[in-house]
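2.7 Reproducibility. Because tokenized structures are sensitive to small changes in the input, we list the exact sequence used for Chorismate dehydratase, including any N-terminal residues retained from the expression construct. No trimming or masking was applied before prediction.
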Amino acid sequence: MTINRRPIRIGRIDFTNVWPLFHYFPLDAFGNQVEVMQQVPTQLNQAMARGEIDIGPISSFAYGQQAADCLLFPDMSVSAYSHVHSILLFHRKPLEQLDGVTVALPTTSASSVNLLKIILKKFYQVEPVYVYEAPILETMMNMADAGLLIGDHAIRSSWEDCGYYVTDLGAEWTRLTGQWMSFAVCAIRKKTVEEQPELVRSIYEAFLESKRKSLADLTPLVREAQLAIGGTSEYWHHYFSNLSYEFGPKQWAGLQLYFQYAAELGFLDHEVPLQLWEDTSVARVTE
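Resulting structure tokens (single pass, no recycling of outputs):
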């Protein structure tokens, strides 16, 4: 008996930082077996939680919330050791003086918002008043003393001489902990692995091949970024080269520390194991 399964739905973050995973992804080759849905990280996080997305890069923090239902693809993340260049806090006062002031947060991210809260609370012992605002720097700074921008919004604002302090959260995390930071991970629902293991394997291999081809020659991505967002060729070559799309032991260690602090500070209500997908469809839990 033939079982008619619905397509596997792949979520795509609406930011340039995931382009290498998708640029050469052979969507047409999968026919009606695969669909791609493009949204900002918070929307994808919610869609994954509801079971509307089966595979895709989601905020690392969202994986922490959904770890019981998901596995992680190895060798695939959006990570940085030090500067990430697209997770930026713009602030009028030094970080140690932000206690009690208003900090505007974007509605588009979970990992970066909680990374900021961890850095300020654990390492600076300050607790601002957090409010959510549209990711427009001028709007944020009209009603707050600091504003967090991520992705392409942060990149565009970093090109302007705004007169504020600018803290790169990737650089600050590495300076304080000596660790990598993984801002997004590629998660897959366990149910999808159980139902369609061979198709999952093919999708994983296609992602890795897209990543390999993209990083081997950044020119097409750089050209596309310039057309879509602006900036110089030099900027985009440096941006894509500086990010890491790996997800191995060094990235695992940094992410586990992030989850440890999130749980200690009450941002997560449980500890988070990193459960990795394997071809055998058996989860491996890292300690």
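The CA atoms of residues 183 and 241 lie 16 Å apart.
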